[in-house]
Amino acid sequence: MSVATDFIFDPASYDGVRLPLEEAETLPPWCYTSEVYYRAEVEHMFKRVWNLLGRADRIPNSGDYYTVKFVGVPIIFVRGNDGEVRAYSNSCRHRGTRMVEGEGNCKHFVCPYHGWAYGLDGYLQAAPGMDHTAGFDFSDYGLIPLRLETWGGFLFVNFDNNAEPLLDYLGNLPIEMASYGYEDLVLTNHWEYDVACNWKLHIENAMEDYHVPWVHSTSLDLKDVQFWNVPTEGAWFDMRERHEGTRALLEEDAHHGFPHISTLTGHAAEGTNFVCIAPSTCVASTSDCVWYIELHPQGPGSTKVNVGTLFPKETVARPDFEEKAQYYYKRWRRSVGEDNNISAIQQEGLVSPFVTPGRLSTLEPLVRTLGEWWIDWVIDRGAAATSD
Ligand code: FES
Ligand SMILES: [Fe+2]
Fold first, then answer.
1. pLDDT value at position 4?
2. Whole-angstrom Cα distance, residue 261 to residue 386?
């Protein structure tokens, strides 16, 4: 480690982050701009935790696949002929070429470079020109499978084969949020944006309402809304809001609302849960639908923002679904666009050498909580892992 970056790995550099909310400081600015800190995040956190990377119902049929590039790792998600969803490293076993991009349906994956072909089960099926290669065994050169587990129809990948099972990681999230019935919801739309910001800026924004009167002054109306946080067990955090109606429509479109999700009980029936599944996903669940925002870090100042929208089956079956859903999509495109914009503007300011850690409002408790969760992994556990 070079002397110039020692302060990044000194736990004392983060003492201000760990103070009680009323006294706490924000994360130091290098956490959002430094390549060195970003590499530590990838190695010590993203490669050890469960990362939410889409939905099983995005690929309902055998051969359906989609791809993502997450912290530098290209990944294929595909449904096999046996109906199982699997994740593979999207790199050819010959000389490493990225196999496929985007999404689609296929019977096998063929590498664009020299034509090696792999089945949906990852097995190498054809490798032209390899007949005289000594000791070459097809069974040794299948696509590399990645550890994949699911909860509520969401797909999670973990790059660490020794990590705890997903359900242990999620703690009491599945119980607390059970009445939304996520596994029965239908993915009706998804879209993505490239945003010139550090991924943490976007999820911090999603987990506080302090910015809403400023950033969403002409879109979201928060009059008479109560927010509060509840204690959680496991890698998730919850900002709850009590209100009538849905939070997924602009006020002017409120009369286009769908019926509520019929299974909701307790707190879920009283308003909205803005949940962060750490480290980097927001799942917002309101009375009639759910939307989620996955952040795929591409570098310290670059993030792919993926948005997905979920509705109950009976809502999707309505004859007026497509017509009314447009009002929901309009609201999300507007609010996410505003959040993308402010996150990029924040990044522009943060790169200045004159930026120092700021102070937090008591209206943004989860910004502090998330900052502490992240540095636990990146700095404290990271230091322990490096000294092993
Ligand atoms: S790199 Fe894929 S077939 Fe050669
Ligand atoms: Fe926002």
1. 72
2. 47
The whole-model pTM stands at 0.96
Tell how far the Cα of 378 is from the centroid of ligand 1, in angstroms. 35
Q: What is the mean pLDDT of the chain?
A: 95
Quote the DSSP letter at residue 25.
B
Residue by residue, DSSP assigns 311-364 as: EEHHHHTSTTHHHHHHHHHHHHHHHHHHHHHHHHHHHHHHTSTT----B--TT-
Q: Please give the DSSP secondary-structure letter assigned to residue 384.
A: H
Closest CA to 180 of 241, 257, 262: 262
137 alpha carbon to ligand 1 midpoint, in Å? Answer: 16
- SS3 at position 193: strand
Q: How confident is the model at residue 51 (pLDDT cuts 50, 70, 90)?
A: very high
Q: Would you state the torsion angle of the CA atoms of residues 147, 305, 28, 45, taken in this order, to the nearest 10 degrees?
A: 0
Cα–Cα distance measured from residue 356 to residue 145, given in angstroms and rounded to the nearest whole number:
43
φ, ψ for residue 133 (rounded to 5)?
Answer: -80, 120
CA 107, 113, 116 angle in degrees (round to 5)?
45
From the alpha carbon of 92, which atom of ligand 1 is closest?
A: 2
Tokens, residue 243 = 């209100």
Provide the token pair at 30: 């290098």
**Residue 360 CA: distances (Å) to CA of 208, 249, 351:** 11, 29, 19
> Rounded to 5 degrees, what angle do the CA atoms 245, 361, 347 make?
90
Q: Which has the closest alpha carbon to 342: 236, 245, 208?
A: 208
Per-residue pLDDT band for 181 (boundaries 50, 70, 90) equals very high
Ligand 2 mean position, distance from CA 189 (Å): 20
**What distance in Å separates the CA atoms of residue 375 and residue 381, rounded to the nearest whole number?**
8
Asked if 357 contacts 29 with a C-beta cutoff of 8 angstroms, the reply is yes
Residue among 98, 111, 118 to mutate when testing ligand 1 (max atoms within 8 A of CB): 111
Strands 185-195 and 302-312: antiparallel
